[in-house]
Model the fold of this input.
Amino acid sequence: MNEVNKTLFIPLYGKAAVSKKNIILKDPQAEKIWHKEAFPLHGKSKSKWLAYNMAMRARVFDDWTEKMLKTYPDATVVHIGCGLDSRCLRVKAPCLHWLDCDLPDVINVRKMYYQENDTYHMMSIDASDPAKVQSLPENRCGIIILEGLSMYLSPSQLHNLFQVLSEKYDTLSVLMDIYTVFGAKASKYKNPINDVGVTKVYGIDDIDEIINGLPLSFTKEYSFTPDYLINELDFFERMIFKLLFQNSFYRKIYRLIELSSK
Done:
């Protein structure tokens, strides 16, 4: 795997570590895969605080996906940049078609741990290549999960991705995490992804510049660290975690936004 692909082990470790504690996110598949892969992480990548943060982020994405599937039960769920994530197992709302997508090296590893069936499939896709994204199946409605992906795409690549997705789905709902421009610059010096060799990422300050001319609009911003999840930590950990991740400075570097069809 290249350096960007290796970043998938950071949230995988976080979800596995937290799942073992039986808080925030129950993810036995992450525990199983981490036990098998045991990728060597170092420094901030193995911080318990980051593990809590990664698990909370995943849980917020899970809850959003559940909500969207209840609203659009006939939708196709497309998780682009899925890594080895088990959201397809954690989300319990019925889904007629779930598609997990990532680069070929990642999908090859993923197929060791996940089995396709009538409703679940995996596909090799380079999100930076519109021609590859064109191979996604069409449907009236698409629920698009972009977790830990946008920062590896340039603004023009991200715009092109949304353009193709807008052509594929009449009704589109997207949830994605983004770095701000300041966050992208700062991550060059202090970011867990540096531990696996990644130093180049992109930030977004004005989402309208990315979706300009497309039938998409900003809908809502979410918290990565909602109180109902922080409250699952013990008192001391809650205090430390809030200082690290639930403050105005954190939002200045990292945000979670929803886009939807106009």
About this structure: Residues 3-261 form a domain with the Rossmann fold fold (CATH 3.40.50.150). The radius of gyration is 17 Å. The chain has a mean pLDDT of 91.
